[in-house]
Amino acid sequence: MRVIAVDLGATNLRVALFDDGSLVRVARSRTPREGGRESVARTIVSMARSLLGGDRPDAVGIASIGPLDLERGWVVGTPNHPLRSFPLRGPVEEGLGAPVYLYNDCVAAVWGEKVLGSGRGMRDLGYITISSGIGGGFIVDDRLLIGRRGNAHEVGHMVVDLDSGAVCGCGGVGHWEALASGVNIPRTAALYASSWGGPASRAYEAAREGRLSPEALYSLARQGDPFASSLVDYLNRVHAAGLASVAAAYDPEAVFLGGSVYLNNEDLILPGVKRYLARYSIWVPELRRATYGHDAVLYGAAAVALEPPG
Ligand SMILES: [Zn+2]
Hints:
By secondary structure, this protein is of the alpha/beta class. It has two domains: 2-105 and 295-306, ATPase, nucleotide binding domain (Nucleotidyltransferase, domain 5, 2-Layer Sandwich); 118-290, Nucleotidyltransferase, domain 5. The chain is 39% helix and 21% strand. It has helices at 39-52, 89-96, 105-115, 176-180, 185-194, 202-208, 214-222, 226-250, 260-264, 266-280, 296-306, and strands at 2-8, 12-19, 22-30, 59-64, 68-69, 74-75, 86-87, 100-104, 125-130, 134-140, 143-144, 254-258, 286-289. The strands form three sheets. The protein has a five-stranded mixed beta sheet, sandwiched between helices. The model has no long low-confidence stretch (mean pLDDT 95). Zinc ion binds at residues 157, 168, 170, 172, 175, 177-178. Zinc ion is lined by residues 157, 168, 170, 172, 175, 177-178.
């Protein structure tokens, strides 16, 4: 079975050809930001056609930024792309002559763990991305959770800190994503610096100026910078609080962790998160690295095309 898998991010677009679960070829592009509502779908179709070389795929899986309206097959009102709302399923189905299965990126990724990854055989599992944002996907009682329009389990917007005052991109306060996602780490670092009682350091100086990037934070923590190490510990508590809520809500056997902030810094994140999770959580799921690492969403897109979720 030959399927097209699409990983549609706000900035980057990847389209891949899979043959029975094996990646054959992948094409990359920037996500079109202008050219009208159908420009994203048109780009997907033309990238897929050049991978297929004249063949027709058996199915297409699209793992997309949200929010989604699955009834219409559209991205609707996304804050991360200038087009805001645009159709995907209709024009891609028409352009490639094959059924299109559209899901939120993390929802597809958890399906990928179950169908193609090391979540095979599990009936209850989750996938969490810790990246520029924080999001998740869940399978409970062997069923993929979707929600009314396809946006269930927006776990990045769980409240994990009542007192931080950190305002989220969604407008809420104290959300997991507002505190610990890649985009928000410089702001959290600045907040943390404003009440820091320890010694000044390179990370502290950068944080005070609001320019402590996730890369610099974790690399300085690795070098023993006291401010960076303390902030990493705080962020691990935030992640553990989020995961404790996830465990309470969904009771998963395992949670797969992906996203670039996590994957590039697993050595500093996983041990601390495990320690705090054992303290915070009603029950502690197994934490596992995403089977396909940085390609978790792409494999998820392939998985929804190969074995569409019931
Ligand atoms: Zn939020």
